[in-house]
Amino acid sequence: MSFPPTRLLPPADAALTVLGIESSCDETAAAMVRLERGGAWVLSDVIASQVAEHAPYGGVVPEIAARAHLRVISPVVREAVATAGGWGAVDAVAVTAGPGLIGALLVGLQAGKAIALARGLPLVGVNHLVGHLLAPFTRVVGEVHPQPAFPFVALLASGGHTALYRCDDAATMRELGATRDDAAGEAFDKVAKMLGLGYPGGPVIDRLAALGDPEAIAFPQAMRGRSLEFSFSGLKTSVAQHLAKHGQPGSEQGLRDLAAGVQRAIVETLVRKVVLAAQQEGITRVVLGGGVAANRGLRARAAEACAKAGLTLVVPPARACTDNAAMIAYAGAVSLRSGRLDGAALDARATWPVERALAHP
Ligand code: KG4
Ligand code: ZN
Question: What residue's CA is closest to ligand 1, atom 16?
């Protein structure tokens, strides 16, 4: 084994180009990011989604995810490298090492190790959540969106995670509160499944809710106090109870109203807690991330609530909210620049708090 790498990182004042690989859940992704003084530029960003393979089951099936990653990882990586200058342009490899589905993570991890080993490149394992929290700093030429500035409070809401973080800089992040049970995206997905709306449920409920009356059916909002923890499993139960009592909605408008009621319960909770977190921490900047940040209701309510509370809100473009490898490449570049380096012993972790990931061994 030729770990440690035979190739050194470019000097600190030179650009650093990192190949990022992500396979923690149901997206196989690879991207090239060039870190230079002017920012972190996304040179390529390839994503193969497995949504269609999991759709019949209404959620991600770990075994199917791992096999699907294995099928597409090579072409996905090759395309990301080829469209960004070829192998000669790659200075280092960053790969998601957790948290996530172990079987899924191992595919990306082995690919990353094999590439690093074969090419003598530095390798670094990246925490998927740190990737999400740094994603808003990645830039695409021609894309116009506001960049966040540290410190900020971030709400990360996806199919697998829902948590609040205080981010002081790229190496100092702390979880302020997380869900005790289901993630917000999972709540959208489970309700959609009960309503026979397919998978993933978030986008469908978002569309229906826009035409519904959020006041028609009041669903509970759990953890109403000053706690920064979330709980969404009660919402799922109360939708099930509503359906048991009233049956499936008999009209399109009935379905829209139900979707609007569910979305309201989720969105109000998320928005209230992110504002509360910022106030408790004395921080004036708020960033949204994760697939649920695509929700139009959440974006609108967060904008309204932040404006009212005197907070600056940054909602990154959709490509930076959902799972992608550009955020992994960028987080890896930052980590490598801080002196971190992994080797053959790098392992997959099902759970991995950001605080522990950022602490140097
Ligand atoms: O970040 P992501 O692409 O993958 C991970 O789960 O890590 O997030 C996917 C989740 C799914 O649960 C999906 O239903 C939800 O994000 N989602 C949405 C919307 N678009 C995606 N939830 C609410 N409204 C949306 N527009
Ligand atoms: Zn994610």
Answer: 291
